[in-house]
Write a structure and sequence with these properties.
The protein has helices at about 5-30, 35-55, 65-80, 85-95, 95-110, 115-140, 145-155, 175-195, 200-220, 225-245, 250-265, 275-285, 290-305, 315, 360-390, 390-395, 400-410, 425-440, and strands at about 340-345, 350. By secondary structure, the chain is an all-alpha fold. It folds into 2 domains: about 65-95 and about 285-390, no CATH class; about 110-280 and about 395-445, no CATH class. A two-stranded antiparallel sheet has the order 1-2. Strand 1 and strand 2 (about 350) form a beta hairpin. The two termini are about 25 Å apart.
């Protein structure tokens, strides 16, 4: 066997292994951010090698990729003006992997039915597993994964407490966030598979029950942003079917009965709930934790309007005196801006002015990347939106794309609370969905990339 043949075989085997790993990323994110990130890096490097091997760099001409690369170089520039340059630059330099990873999904890993079917199957299994773990935790306070860790690894148990369900996510209550990211793509992916065959009403009934269970556990996760995200997605879905003159009454009924389902299963809804807490926070937004973080963000923007404070620097800068609230400023040693504080002199409670990030997508860009960074990100959203509108017929034919859009749309709304856009876990989820969505919009001249 000659050397060229050996290289070709090695390339083919590596491609198959990486394709499988890419399809497993949503499941791997449940247990390890690091392993998922390693797969992202490997997939990105392999895609670059593949482009070089075929001398085909047409994917770099895509508008969204051009804008993303401009954003990448801007983030590096802002790092040199950050309060903590090492922290900012370490996050900025590595950010390019998400751009290339999304491109690799669009033009290589997810441009065939086999891999998309794998992805739907593995993610569906992952959703069922998360639901199972959350169910166990609801009744026994700790998930099965937590028990196994204690039994075999001598690790501490973990749980979300009375108002939250961690499920198998040990480091944070990401269970509701995970469900909100992947419910709609998987549900619509499965519906697409069912509708291509003879009507199977038993499968459809089970699928709708699966939807109800997911909604219920998103609520029980205690993560309000995720629950709100799912509700917004449902309302967008109603509007979409109304616009296309579909059976709107059927889908409105589904949502109505889903609400009844939630109400009947959870008596705690009669007590102060997510809804009541959210309404109270909106009424008293300036005095709420989100309001305090927003005020801190705008202070940072006024101080650093062009370059921002640098990626991952919000947690560093928010401890500086110029960004503290009046209630925290000058309160002497022992009063932390990371905690709420009742100022006796001012006779008022002040919410924490510090957090790891502003808990809002656009405020994060404004604070850490400055006005230019925010505008570039908005241009990126516009570029992706143009691509979607150009291919709107595909959305009608491939309803799985509608599911991905339903998942992404609420997360891009300006008023929505969010995870840190630059954190590995959230970034992998976001860019995975972007790449998956764009993989359905392949241009003819790029199909053989």
């Amino acid at each position: 066997m000659n050397q060229k043949k050996i290289i070709e075989n090695s390339f083919s085997i590596t491609s198959k292994i990486l394709s499988l790993c890419v399809c497993l990323i949503p499941a791997i994110l449940i247990f390890s951010n690091s392993i998922a990130d390693i797969i992202v890096v490997c997939a990105s490097l392999f895609f670059i090698f593949h482009s070089k091997k075929n001398n085909n760099w047409l994917w770099l001409k895509q508008p969204w990729i051009k804008i993303s690369l401009v954003i990448y170089f801007w983030l590096i520039i802002t790092g040199f003006f950050a309060y903590n340059q090492e922290m900012a630059l370490s996050r900025s330099f590595g950010w390019i992997r998400f751009i290339i990873f999304a491109a690799s999904l669009q033009f290589f890993f997810l441009n065939n039915k086999k891999n998309i079917n794998r992805l739907i199957f593995f993610t569906f299994v992952a959703l069922i597993y998360v639901l199972m773990e959350m169910s166990v935790e609801k009744f026994f306070d700790y998930s099965l994964y937590s028990e196994l860790r204690e039994l075999f690894l001598n690790a501490d148990k973990f749980g979300g407490g009375p108002d939250r369900l961690h499920g198998p996510f040990k480091d944070a209550s990401k269970s509701g966030i995970f469900l909100a990211y992947f419910i709609f793509p998987i549900i619509f992916g499965l519906i697409e598979k069912i509708r291509n065959k003879k009507p199977n009403y038993i499968l459809l009934t089970l699928l709708f029950f699966f939807v109800f269970i997911n909604i219920y556990f998103v609520y029980k996760s205690g993560h309000r942003a995720s629950f709100l995200s799912v509700l917004i997605s449902f309302f967008v879905l109603i509007f979409y079917f109304y616009w296309n003159r579909r059976k709107i009454i059927m889908f409105a009924s589904i949502i109505f009965f889903a609400g009844l389902f939630l109400y009947s299963l959870d008596s705690n809804l009669k007590k102060p709930s997510i809804y009541h807490k959210t309404v109270e926070e909106i009424k008293n937004y300036p005095d709420s934790a989100y309001g305090a973080l927003s005020i801190t963000t705008f202070k940072m923007f006024k101080e650093n309007p062009i370059f921002g404070i640098g990626l991952k620097n919000y947690r560093v800068a928010c401890e500086r005196d110029e960004f503290l609230s009046k209630g925290h400023l000058g309160t002497a040693y022992g009063v932390s801006p990371w905690k709420g504080h009742y100022n006796q002199g001012l006779k008022r409670y002040y919410a924490p002015t510090c957090s790891s990030h502003p808990h809002n997508l656009y405020l994060t860009w404004l604070a850490e990347a400055g006005l230019i960074g925010l505008l570039l990100f908005i241009f990126l959203i516009i570029a992706v939106s143009k691509e979607i509108f150009k291919n709107k017929k595909i959305i009608s034919n491939k309803i799985i794309t509608l599911g991905i859009l339903l998942s992404l749309f609420p997360k891009l709304l300006p008023m929505m609370p969010s995870l840190n856009f630059f954190s590995n876990w959230n970034a992998i989820c976001f860019w995975f969905l972007i790449g998956w969505l764009l993989s359905f919009f392949q241009k003819k001249n790029l199909k053989n990339l």
